Write the structure tokens for this entry.
Amino acid sequence: GQQVMQIPQYQHVQEGEDFTTYCNSSTTLSNIQWYKQRPGGHPVFLIQLVKSGEVKKQKRLTFQFGEAKKNSSLHITATQTTDVGTYFCAGKEEKLTFGTGTRLTIIP
Amino acid sequence: NAGVTQTPKFRILKIGQSMTLQCTQDMNHNYMYWYRQDPGMGLKLIYYSVGAGITDKGEVPNGYNVSRSTTEDFPLRLELAAPSQTSVYFCASSYSESTWWNQPQHFGDGTRLSIL
């Protein structure tokens, strides 16, 4: 069955440093979504990527969908304390499957 | 708009007890879902519904039941609580303009359930 893995599982960065999380699927995806979950909170939708090689930006966040549509990445430039949380990708082959998540902590 | 509302927020059950987790949404979304999130883990789909009267199993349906009598409500029932069901349960909903997998999901605040 479809599996969606994310690396790293945890990331600790100094405030101002960059951060990247990678999402890898065992199968080709029709689209991928990214969500952010603050500590103690619920997942909140960030963005959806549909096209092969697609790149989208939201302020300091850059999202990429791989050419083969089997992987994706989220890059945050110059992290801030408000970026703390767990970032999940969710990819669809037959069903939407959430990745394992990357927990980001910021050292002020 | 309240969005997706889940009750209760916290609950402790004894092994073998039963309970219903309530979920209601006021966004007129056709699609609704139940997920569980174990500590430090991702979201696993328990059940989902594409409209009133229609439900289907997700990845981890054993030990749970659902019903969808109205567009707004999608309760999740645990019949015989087991320690393995200790988790945070999230309800979510989405529009169905195209295929539902392409629509952002809106989540409730979750129910934190402990079974002792």
Summary: Residues 44 and 56 of chain A are 17 Å apart (CA to CA). The mean pLDDT of chain A is 94. The interface with chain B takes residues 30-31, 33, 41-45, 48, 50, 88, 92, 95-101, 103 of chain A (CB under 8 Å). DSSP finds no helices and eleven strands in chain A.
